[in-house]
Design goal:
413 residues; alpha/beta; Aminopeptidase; Alpha-Beta Plaits; 2 domains; 8-stranded mixed sheet; 4-stranded antiparallel sheet; 16 strands; 21% strand; elongated
Length: 413
């Protein structure tokens, strides 16, 4: 095995063993910074606590690569960070970082035209909300998601296009292409009732847990009204079910995502959820306070970029081992970026277990690290040597909203 490939595997393993939640990815950042410095590349700070970029070359075409730094809470994962809400790289983000770091180091001796920049982005996972809301209060960030903040601050404006990749995690195929992602809205619904002694005077109380149960049933009844083609999902957790068994629950807290591949449907279903909470609570004399946060927008891929990636994938697999045009129920802030720039996210294998599960691990290092890195390298090389193709990509791309419209959406206007 070549020494640089051994270094890639070692880098990936080290990142995998040091998971951190969004805006706290200091150890991962340190590991990557030391790797780049070893190879003579300069790290440029981007703020947002942990965001940074590394660039090779100059001028056009300007190719952007995306790697996500953060982990997600995963109870029971062998590398769960018990000091950070059991954070684990159970979504494989650590492998993205190793792949893109290795690719850039290899490309620095290959690229003769244009520039390539890897953006290491924090906080893709929409979690640890209380911590991030505190950062917003302190004006360290404006929004929950990392790339959302970077977009609004213009950090991606100079690039012509973006290449991203993500573990498949599950499935029997080698790679995936042209996968669409859903958008979502986060909601926190607090049902308020009145506490009394649960055994002595339940007639004098208002049960906030019952208000939630009624609401939960209403949501289930709404499901039959959703169109299949809109790919609607409503899923959540009961974050607080009551205060003590011996008292009628005065407060219950429900957190959920409302998802859809159709942005208009997403807004309409979110409104139905709000109405269900309000009126189910009112039906038994309780109340419902609803907090909504814009999540991420649906993703639309650049097929012209993926046409090149497909050709490079065929060096590693047969055509029927590429899963094409899947509509995934997952979401990511890469969807927001795809609204403004030609963007792709391709999937790669090499893992066992399930995404976001305690059993996710790297089963095949060649598939999980080397193959996707070599595909990125070959794709970037082609694009840098064929600026007319990049111009064609840019010409055919149409932004789905303006920056002003995006800001209004984020502010709920």
């Amino acid at each position: 095995m070549k020494k640089d490939v051994e270094e890639l595997y070692s880098l990936g393993d080290e990142l995998f063993r040091h998971p951190e939640l969004g805006y706290k990815e200091y150890t991962n950042k340190k590991i990557l910074t030391e790797y780049f410095e070893k190879h003579g590349l300069k790290v440029t700070e981007l703020g947002l606590r942990t965001a940074f970029k590394v660039t090779i070359g100059k001028g056009s075409p300007r190719i952007g690569l995306i790697a996500e730094l953060d982990a997600i809470p995963t109870l029971g994962h062998p590398f769960a960070n018990k000091d950070d809400s059991n954070a684990a790289h159970s979504c494989g983000h650590s492998t993205q970082c190793a792949i893109m770091a290795y690719a850039l180091v290899q490309l620095k001796d290959i690229i003769r035209k244009g520039s390539v920049t890897v953006y290491f982005t924090p906080a893709e996972e929409f979690t640890d909300i209380a911590f991030r809301e505190e950062l917003i209060k302190r004006k360290e960030i404006r929004y929950i998601g990392g790339k959302v903040n970077m977009l609004t601050e213009g950090m991606f404006d100079e690039e012509d296009l973006f290449i991203h990749l993500h573990t498949i995690g599950q499935g029997n195929y080698h790679f995936s292409l042209n996968t669409s992602l859903c958008g979502f809205i986060y909601k926190k619904i607090t049902f308020k009732g009145k506490a009394t002694h649960a055994a002595v005077s339940p007639d004098q109380g208002i049960n906030a847990l019952n208000a939630f149960v009624l609401f939960d049933n209403a949501i289930n009844m709404l499901r039959e009204t959703f169109k299949e083609e809109d790919h609607v999902r409503i899923h959540g957790i009961l974050a607080e079910g009551g205060q003590t068994v011996n008292s009628i629950p005065e407060k219950t807290v429900y957190e959920c995502y409302v998802r859809s591949s159709n942005q208009e449907t997403l807004q309409a279903v979110a409104s139905k959820v709000d109405q269900a909470a309000k009126y189910c609570a009112k039906a038994i004399g309780a109340s419902a306070a609803i907090e909504s946060l814009p999540g991420y927008l649906p993703m639309h891929q650049s097929r012209l970029i993926n046409d090149i990636i497909r050709k490079k994938m065929l060096d590693y697999c047969a055509p029927d081992e590429i899963h094409d045009d899947e509509l995934s129920m997952a979401a990511g802030d890469i969807g927001d970026l795809s609204c403004f720039k030609p963007t792709v996210q391709f999937g790669y294998s090499g893992f066992s277990g399930s995404c976001h599960g305690k059993d996710l691990c790297i089963a095949d290092k060649k598939r999980a690290y080397l193959e996707p890195a070599e595909i990125v390298i070959a794709t970037v090389k082609y694009l840098s040597e064929n600026p007319e193709y990049v111009r064609k990509i840019k010409k055919e791309f149409k932004a789905s909203l303006s920056k002003e419209e995006y800001l209004r959406y984020l502010e709920g206007k």
